[in-house]
Write a structure and sequence with these properties.
This protein has three helices and nine strands. By secondary structure, the protein is mainly beta. The protein has one domain: Immunoglobulin-like (Sandwich). Strand 2 (47-55) and strand 3 (61-69) form a beta hairpin. The longest helix is centred in the first third of the chain and has 12 residues, at 8-19. The structure holds 2-acetamido-2-deoxy-beta-D-glucopyranose (3 copies). Residues 1-24 form the signal peptide. This is MD-2-related lipid-recognition domain-containing protein.
């Protein structure tokens, strides 16, 4: 079995596409560690965001992220997700790319997002988000078992861009993490 090769990646995406509307899966082959979260951009006429990374305990780090919307979102508004993998000293766009509506995204079962939005956010991030309310994500430590099976090992930047159906860029947040297999498998 090989998990870390590039060849395995299109298969993973296919699997992700097939499972995206199914809630039941579990992986226990790798661990995911949060490195940091950053706000890349927000348009102050549509939203206001702030972020702070800190130590959850001696060995684990986490972040606080606040999001305040100054507009109403509609059911067609999207989160565009792109995965960038650390290689030769920079993050390079990799094949992990997909769009979900914000509505679906708030209940996304992958990447432990559903729990983040509901158990780690005050008030819980329900659809539709309420204009003028400050949503605060706090103390989220990723549950690795909720990540898609077969993700390649390494350091990742997961970029999330929220855009309206008519193309307005509301905000972009980047999440950096490291993914490490518990058992190294030789690929040769
Ligand atoms: C965003 O919110 C912070 C504090 O919550 C405030 O200090 C800042 O002025 C706000 N920025 C904009 C552009 O509204
Ligand atoms: C820190 O918190 C994480 C997540 O709850 C836990 O897995 C880990 O064992 C904790 N480490 C220490 C040193 O308490
Ligand atoms: C996501 O949506 C944008 C805007 O509609 C589009 O340009 C892009 O190709 C889509 N990406 C994927 C992976 O479907």
């Amino acid at each position: 079995m090989m998990f870390c090769g590039r060849e395995a990646f299109p298969k993973m995406l296919l699997l992700l596409a097939l499972l995206v509307h199914v809630n039941a899966f579990y992986q226990n082959a790798y661990d995911v560690t949060h490195e940091r979260t950053e706000i890349e951009y927000y348009d102050p006429t549509f939203s206001n965001l702030s972020c702070n990374n800190y130590k959850y305990n001696r060995t684990t780090s986490t972040f606080t992220l606040t999001v305040k919307l100054k507009m109403d979102l509609t059911e067609g508004d999207l989160v565009m997700v792109t995965g960038h993998k650390w290689l030769s000293n920079r993050y390079r766009l990799d094949i992990l790319q997909f769009n979900v509506t914000v509505k679906e995204g708030l209940r996304f079962k992958y990447f432990d997002i559903d729990r983040m939005m509901h158990s780690c956010t005050t008030p819980p991030f329900e659809w539709p988000p309420i204009k003028g309310v400050t949503y605060t994500v706090r103390n989220w430590v990723p549950d690795s078992t909720k990540f898609p099976p077969g993700m390649p090992e390494g350091r990742w930047k997961i970029a999330m861009r929220v855009v309206t159906v008519d193309g307005k860029h509301v905000f972009s947040v980047n999440w950096y993490c490291a993914l490490k297999y518990k058992l190294r498998m030789e690929s040769k």
